[in-house]
From TrEMBL:
Bilayer disposition of the protein: Multi-pass membrane protein
Highest taxon, organism lineage: Bacteria
Family assignment from sequence similarity: Belongs to the DoxX family.
Protein name: Putative oxidoreductase
Source species taxonomy: Bacteria, Bacillati, Actinomycetota, Actinomycetes, Pseudonocardiales
Organism listed in the record: Saccharothrix violaceirubra
């Protein structure tokens, strides 16, 4: 095993945490007007629902809770944002300012397949369930 392979689980966990944190910040910015941007109404389409998805799914991915369902929703939302909002302005992301939407969509697509990984609430819950099942099996 090479030295880079030894840190794979931790690197994927850091990737998940950072992507979730950054995505949640977009939601905070859009919903509450933080970080120098004016807030969008939750009822305005598609900005309001997108901001809510960013905040909720970003937070879930960051802490590693319901990671795969949150990543599916986030990836789909960003693909929608790219193709409906950005792509009509030009074919390439550099032309239509859709780089962030494209990158987030692909980052969350990766997390759908890699799952929550290390340092996640999903992992903690699974370990607790396995521990409880082992304890129950030993008492029978």
């Amino acid at each position: 095993m090479n030295v880079l392979d030894r840190g794979r689980d931790q690197a994927l966990a850091l990737f998940r945490i950072v992507i979730g944190f950054l995505f949640a910040n977009h939601g905070l910015q859009s919903l509450f007007g933080l970080f120098g941007k004016s807030a969008v109404s939750i009822t305005s389409w598609p900005g309001g629902p997108a901001a809510l998805i960013e905040l909720v799914c970003g937070t879930l991915v960051c802490v590693g809770l319901a990671t795969r369902p949150a990543a599916i929703l986030a990836s789909g939302a960003m693909a929608y944002a790219y193709f409906v909002v950005h792509q009509p302005e030009g074919l390439l992301p550099i032309q239509n300012h859709g780089e962030a939407a494209a990158l987030y969509s692909w980052a969350f697509a990766l997390l759908i397949f890699t799952g929550p990984g290390a340092w996640s609430l999903d992992g903690y819950i699974a370990a607790q369930r396995q521990k409880d099942a082992s304890a129950a099996a030993q008492t029978v």
